[in-house]
Design a protein that fits this description.
Elements (H helix, E strand, L loop, with lengths): L14 E4 L7 E4 L38 H10 L1
Antiparallel strand pairs: 1-2
Length: 78
């Protein structure tokens, strides 16, 4: 048969690795969330490429939130 989305062997499944003493501490690894640096369009940067400089933002810029209150509410809820 085919591969079910719930099969551990599916290509899009995250993998778990147990660590520490016993089998109760584990880390999950996602196949696409690798933390490789990328450009603003999402294309991966070649190894060794320096990261772009951060841009300065005004202190009242809460992007993507509309205000400090929206940010605090999202922080509280999630």
């Amino acid at each position: 048969g085919g591969t079910s989305p719930m099969d551990d062997e599916g290509p899009l499944q995250s993998t778990a690795e147990f660590f520490g003493t016993g089998d109760w501490l584990y880390r999950n690894y996602h196949p696409f969330l690798s933390a490789h640096p990328c450009d603003p369009d999402g294309a991966f940067l070649p190894p060794g490429t320096p990261l772009p400089q951060l841009t300065e933002k005004p202190l009242d810029d809460w992007t993507p939130y509309g205000s400090h209150i929206e940010f605090e509410l999202a922080d509280y809820l999630f």
